[in-house]
Specification:
Elements: H1 2-5, E1 7-9, E2 29-35, E3 38-44, E4 51-53, E5 57-58
Parallel strand pairs: 1-4
Antiparallel strand pairs: 2-3, 3-4, 3-5
The structure holds zinc ion.
């Protein structure tokens, strides 16, 4: 399923709660993708599974 693999880069404005792909508007699940010593924080739409990258990185 293509939507599960692709990660779309997004800019967070005042609020990011609506999935641009399916219109679901109750917010996102979160996952952490290892990227060297850091993790990318990835938002996942609970309805359609589309993944979004707001550019957040976290070092644990
Ligand atoms: Zn969606």
């Amino acid at each position: 399923m293509k939507a599960q693999q692709d990660i779309t880069r997004v800019e967070i404005g005042d609020e990011f709660r609506t999935c641009p792909h399916c219109g679901y508007d109750l917010g996102f699940h979160v996952s952490f993708l290892r990227e060297g010593k850091r993790h990318r924080i990835v938002l996942i739409c609970p309805n359609c599974g589309s993944r979004y990258d707001p550019g957040w990185r976290q070092e644990f």
